[in-house]
Amino acid sequence: HLVCLYVPFLLSLSILPLFHMSHFHLCVPKARLDKMAKFQQRGEDLESSFAECCRLLQGAQRRLGYLEEQMKREEEDEEREAELKKVQAEVKKLEKDEKLFLGLLEEHRRDEKKLPWNIDTICREGFSKSVFNIQPEIKKETQQEKVEKHKTFVEKYAKEMKHFGMLRRWDDSQKYLSDNPHLVCEESANYLVVLCIDFEIDEKHALMEQVAHQAIVMQFILDLARTLNVDPRGCFRQFFSNIKTANAEYQNAFDRELDLLKERVRKCAQAQMEGTMKELEEEERQKRLGPGGLDPVEVYESLPKEMQRSFDEKNSEMLQDAMNKLNPEEGRYHLQRCIDSGLWVPDLQEEED
User: Fold this and answer.
1) 249 or 207: whose pLDDT is higher?
2) Where is the chain membrane-spanning (predicted)?
3) Structural domain containing residue 43
4) Could you tell me the pTM of the whole model?
5) What is the rounded distance in angstroms from the CA atom of residue 61 to the CA atom of residue 52?
């Protein structure tokens, strides 16, 4: 008889919603639920703030390294020195903030372990979002393996990476990476920078600045992944969420990194162009070398003015007069250099005479 009474009671409970079932048994007051929700939100806020602080610190450290390198290579400049001190102070403050957030996170996790168990603490999702649980593949590669990997990747995906480099809207960039998550990697970031340099060399400055923007987007995603210790393919959406709702400090950090990249691209393009010009000049010089291995242009510029004029007018008598005015030793020196450079061909001149 008791069983007959108990079974309908159980069946009536089975149709209750899970939330009511749990709280029917555990009797968790609403105030406690609100408190737990606030506790969970605080944990998420701390995780987000810590990740952002680490990202800002990495950016500031890159700027500091760049400025220190400039100070070593170039002359002292008051404006650059002031900027260096400003960035040094920023790095020091961010390092302090990083330690503070880390301490708060550790304290929060200790408090989390002390929470009383109920259906909400047992079954709810942890404070860490799914992105924090994606572990990146860790594999040490040799320099040769990295070069080959980059070459293969570029050959396969150059068209897709260039398309990403031309996108302008945040939503378009996010959607394209969602459709092509394999592009979220170091190879893409490196390719975009190389593409920037190529555009700058070709004097396509607007295209350079556009691709530079996307290169910084990719770099920020990779920095965020390193900070969170996750695969970058699992956190690029978080970057776009951050940047679309960015405060002034976050946006300023992005803009600073973009300006630094554009400056580095311009200097690198200039250096490459100068190097190419030197190579071309050396090739032309090698082609000009005379039978004795001397450059006729260099020899001509070293001659006395009267001898130069005789070559300009192709006047052998004027050349002979100019030679007679020199002491014999100096005359022989210049004549031999003219022969070695091909400016003077004795056999040909004798035939003409």
Assistant:
1) 207
2) 6-28
3) 27-115
4) 0.52
5) 14
